[in-house]
Design a protein that fits this description.
single chain
Length: 298
């Protein structure tokens, strides 16, 4: 497969827009914790992920059909393959790992190393070379993530394949991000591509849910709040902004913002659930900010 850089060179306007888009990305990416916290107690993981992706696909479908180019099978199939990697494997892999008793802190840490894998892949596949300063920034950002996550890290007693699944899910999303930036067959309006990705994930999560018993959603207030949060903020906002940024900016620069999701997630937990803040969180956030700033410099 030939990878071609399809994004336009960043303009002065796009450089001014970067901080706003990065802020929206961090808010959406880190907010998944809130929705899962509400909904996880009401349903198993397969049911939760099925409704998370199915509802978003249903919301986007009228817009995908009414606006943008006609979605032909030749264009839809590559988007479905991307949806398998970026939605089903990424979200489902981490969820299954947690079900297999891989500690949540370790899963979160591995998932937040996506930018490191993206940085490593973007040079050989896209020719987007990172300078020395950006590699130093990446190292500093990873150090900040480790500081934030240190208190919650443990290795647990899960089967070995569950740990491998966690790493594989992270790598699958990194590969998908690079493909999204570089493959012309994935160049589709964001609302259309996200609709296809959501329905692809919903079908696969639905099959998993049926094998486990049922897809019937719990009719509770907590599940409804969790679904609304997951669909609108943690999925629509996060993925739509991420896909849009990949069309404009170098992929390593876009993904670097994800390093800030662990400390922002802890702020969500403090604001929504009164979980305590620690000095390590603030130190790690400061270190991560420095690393992200260095990595994001053009």
């Amino acid at each position: 497969m030939t990878l071609l850089s399809i994004g336009a060179a960043p303009t002065a306007r796009s450089r001014l827009l970067l901080p706003l888009l990065a802020t929206l990305l961090i808010i959406g990416w880190s907010s998944g914790f809130v929705g899962i916290r509400y909904a996880r107690q009401e349903a198993n993981v397969a049911v939760l992920l099925f409704w998370r992706t199915a509802l978003l696909g249903i919301i986007l479908l009228p817009f995908a059909l009414a606006f943008g180019p006609r979605m032909r099978l030749k264009a839809v199939l590559p988007q479905m393959a991307f949806g398998v990697m970026a939605v089903f494997i990424y979200l489902g892999g981490f969820a299954l790992a947690i079900e297999q008793r891989v500690p949540t802190g370790l899963v979160a840490l591995i998932s937040d190393l996506v930018p490191l894998a993206v940085a490593a892949l973007s040079q050989p596949l896209l020719g987007e070379r990172l300078g020395v300063r950006q590699w130093i920034g990446t190292a500093i950002a990873v150090t900040g993530v480790l500081i934030v996550s240190f208190d919650s890290l443990s290795f647990g007693a899960a089967p070995l394949w569950a740990y491998a699944l966690t790493i594989g899910s992270m790598l699958a999303f990194a590969v998908a991000s690079v493909l999204r930036r570089g493959e012309r067959s994935l160049d589709m309006p964001v609302h259309q591509s996200l609709c296809i990705h959501s329905f692809t994930g919903a079908v696969l999560f639905g099959i998993c849910g049926l094998f486990q018993g049922t897809l019937e959603p719990p009719l509770t207030r907590e599940f409804a709040i969790g679904m609304a949060w997951l669909v609108l903020i943690a999925t629509f906002l996060a993925y739509a902004v991420y896909y849009s940024m990949l069309r404009i900016y170098p992929v390593a620069q876009v993904s670097a913002a994800i390093y800030l999701s662990p400390p922002i997630t802890m702020l969500w937990a403090w604001m929504m659930f009164s979980e305590p803040l620690t000095s390590a969180m603030f130190i790690g956030m400061g270190v991560t900010l420095v690393g992200v700033w260095l990595t994001s410099r053009a």
